[in-house]
Amino acid sequence: MGLFSRKKKDDRDPKRDDAGAPEPETAAAAEAETPPPAEAGDAPTVNISMSSFAGLGAAGVPVEPPAPTDGTPRAEPTLARAMADPRIEVRAQNRPGLPFAPPSPPTDLETVPGLRDNALVRDALAALPEKPTGAQVLGVVRQMMQGNLFLRVQGDARQQLAEGGQITFGVARAGDKDYMLAYSSGRALREAVAADGDTQTSAIGQPVAALVRHMLQGTFAGIILDNHSKGRAVIPREVLEKAFAQADPQARVKSLLAEPREADTPHRLATVLAERPPLWVAVGPTQGDSDKLGIAEARLADGTRLLQVFSHPLEIAAIGRNEKALPLDVTKIARALADHPQVGGVIVDPAGPLMTLTREELTPVLALAQ
Hints:
The protein contains 14 helices and 17 strands. It is an alpha+beta fold. The protein has two domains: 4-8 and 25-35 and 105-247, no CATH class; 47-54 and 261-369, Trna Endonuclease, Chain: A, domain 1. Strand 16 (343-348) and strand 17 form a beta hairpin. The termini are far apart.
């Protein structure tokens, strides 16, 4: 059964589908700043025993409290050092400016009762200025590596699907280019209806990867997110193609990091890591010897060393440093941890939402080193 159908040009409602032309500077900047993965043949030999470089700083991350014994989830450390970076604007309610995000995922998951938002994308879009930079757009794209987005459908989507037909979704025209329209939240859908007055529409949620795959199969120039909202982003086709080519098709790590924290979240994350999803580390010159390469570390306030691990190269770009993204199989990460017991664990996606895992919590991963 076909799920998607592109809206015909001759029946397009111009009031609803005519989008403002995307900012060419933003599109170009986003494409230029998308980091290429390190080629396997060119990958440098690195060793975790080398000195850390450009890390989050020994005084940057407070000591993480021990796991509670009453079943409540433990708190995550904050990235104080990163948030103090003068290039990062700290917004109201202690929300860091894009491309960073809070250490813990959002807990307010609905803006319209009964409709679960893609809260990470919603909040990233809400943080965008009127004219976002390429880096800020990439801050939205990295949060698109998980969850669902909504399509606004002409007519009753549920009825159309029940009858075995295709759904007809909104397409925006900008110049001679067509863009898919997608929405991050119930609020964004409500704002779209308020903007054009077309109440003969419904919405259907689809996995982001499925939307991007459908977009790439056609001639769309990209996706416009939350077109009628204050936070609106035009994501060029080339950026999405490159980003999703490097993403875990199942979005296992990013999906888990997006969920509200539970007492068993560390164990679940360690189990997912042991499944060997795509992972990256940040590689760059070591402190004091630019001829040697090392893997980026973070340090807790008590001096505990944590290996920085990333679910996607965009997560490394979000840190805003000059390291290269190096794909590294989790078995090699396990061996590095096993060979260097002074490393206390890992921090996953430090730009947020993040999780830290101690050596004890990494038992399923360390088992791969045996």
